[in-house]
C-alpha cells in the first residue's frame, strides 16, 4: 500500500510538471515568433532602407484620427520650410504589427523621424500643432 501511494504521488508530480511544460511551450513559441530582427524589418520595408536621409513615420490609428490632423499640418509646414529635411513621410497603420512592435508604439498618433536606422525624433500623443512644429524644427534644424 505504501509503495502504491509513493508511485501515485510521483505520477501526480510528473503530470503537474508535464502540464506546466505544455502550458509554457505556446507562450515561449509566441515570444520567439513575435521577435523580429532589425534586419528583417528593414528588409520588409524598402522605405526604411534609405541612407543619409530622414525617414518620417506617422503611426496612425482609426480611433485617434482627430488627433492626427495637427501632425499632418506640422509635417507639411516643416516640409515646406525645410524640404531637404523632410522629403516625404509614411503613414503606418496600427494594424502593421511588425513596425508597431519594432518601434514600441504605445500611443497614437506617434511620429518618428529616423536617420540611418536610428530614431532621432519621437513625438507621441494628442498635441497642438505648434508643439509638434517646435519639436520637429528644434531637432531638424540643429542637424
From TrEMBL:
PROSITE patterns: PROKAR_LIPOPROTEIN
Record InterPro entries: Thioredoxin-like_sf
Record protein name field: Uncharacterized protein
Native source organism of the sequence: Anaerobacillus isosaccharinicus
Amino acid at each position: 500500500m505504501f509503495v502504491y501511494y509513493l508511485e501515485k504521488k510521483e505520477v501526480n508530480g510528473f503530470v503537474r510538471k508535464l502540464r506546466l511544460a505544455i502550458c509554457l511551450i505556446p507562450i515561449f513559441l509566441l515570444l520567439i515568433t513575435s521577435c523580429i530582427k532589425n534586419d528583417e524589418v528593414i528588409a520588409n520595408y524598402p522605405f526604411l532602407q534609405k541612407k543619409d536621409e530622414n525617414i518620417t513615420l506617422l503611426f496612425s490609428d482609426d480611433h485617434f484620427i482627430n488627433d492626427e490632423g495637427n501632425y499632418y499640418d506640422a509635417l507639411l509646414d516643416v516640409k515646406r520650410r525645410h524640404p531637404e529635411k523632410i522629403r516625404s513621410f509614411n503613414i503606418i497603420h496600427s494594424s502593421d504589427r511588425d513596425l508597431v512592435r519594432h518601434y514600441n508604439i504605445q500611443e497614437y498618433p506617434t511620429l518618428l523621424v529616423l536617420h540611418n536606422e536610428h530614431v532621432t525624433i519621437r513625438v507621441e500623443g494628442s498635441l497642438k500643432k505648434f508643439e509638434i512644429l517646435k519639436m520637429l524644427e528644434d531637432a531638424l534644424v540643429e542637424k
